[in-house]
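User: Predict the structure for this protein chain, please.
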Amino acid sequence: MKLAMNPSPTALMQGASNFRDLGGYRNADGRRVRRGQVFRSDHLAGLTGQDQQQLQALGVRHSLDFRGASEHRLTPYDIPGVQRVAMAIEPTVIARMQALVAQGVVPSTEETVELMRETYRDFVNRNADTYGRFLRHLLEVPTPQVFHCTAGKDRTGFAAALLLSALGVDRATTMHDYLLTNQLYRRDTRLEGQGHPHVLKVLWQVQPEFLQAAFDAVDRQHGGMQDYLHGAIGLRPQDTAELQRRLLED
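Assistant: Here is the predicted structure, written as structure tokens:
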């Protein structure tokens, strides 16, 4: 199957390595996601003055921040004209890893991958309320927006997958967008903390198995994406229709 891909992404911001427009993809009906409406990114604390001007030129008025409290304190930001909206999802994978290290346990690569899979299952089953807030905010505040976490890969990656799914984009295309992080994100050792190289490599990249674990949980535990969106996430069918009206080209 030929995927409805965006052109190869280019760096839009000097101070954000994983910033990109979520628009441009085609959904199952052949309609294209509008460009210039919703952006995804890693944290925005490193934006240059020129970056901030560019963000304002894009019309972005809200940043939806999935980082936890300590992450926000470590890399705060205040961008003129952009309101930060906290939608905190604490980075539980880091807490679990720290607990293992405290016990003298060094997880293998396979164990670390499974820890990431479990993190994505938690997104589905423990953080549905927050992701519901995210999608409703896009409905309630119809101006261009950016959403992000620290690296813009896991919490942000699942948020992007939910939004694209709600817009009718197929999973292969959604997975393509998700995996772009491995091309775009520049790892920052100041944010990674201490750990064995093989563990950090897993934690600070993305793998298809991570997002697939979320999709599997949606399918097996919630009856599929539409039932999940209209059940645990809390959207009404008319909400999904309105999202599509606003964010898909005619």
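The chain has one domain: 20-247.
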